[in-house]
Amino acid sequence: MSSTSTALSHLRVLDLSRVLAGPWASQLLADLGAEVIKIEKPGCGDDTRAWGPPWLTDGEGQATRDSAYFLCTNRNKRSLTVDIAHPAGQAIVRELAAGADVVIENFKVGGLAAYGLDYPSLRALNPRLVYCSITGFGQDGPYATRAGYDFLIQGMGGLMSLTGTPDGEPGAGPQKVGVALTDILTGLYAGNAILAALAHRDRDGFRRGEGQHIDLALLDVQVACLANQAMNYLVSGTPPRRMGNAHPNIVPYQDFPTADGDMILAIGNDGQFARFCAIAGHPEWASDPRFASNAARVRHRGELIPLLRQATVQRSTAEWIAALEGAAVPCGPINDLAGVFADPQVRARGLRIDLPHAGGGSAPQVACPIRLSATPVVYRQAPPRLGEDTEALLRALGRDEATIAALRREGVV
Question: Is the CATH number of domain 12-225+349-409 3.30.465.10?
Answer without folding.
Answer: no
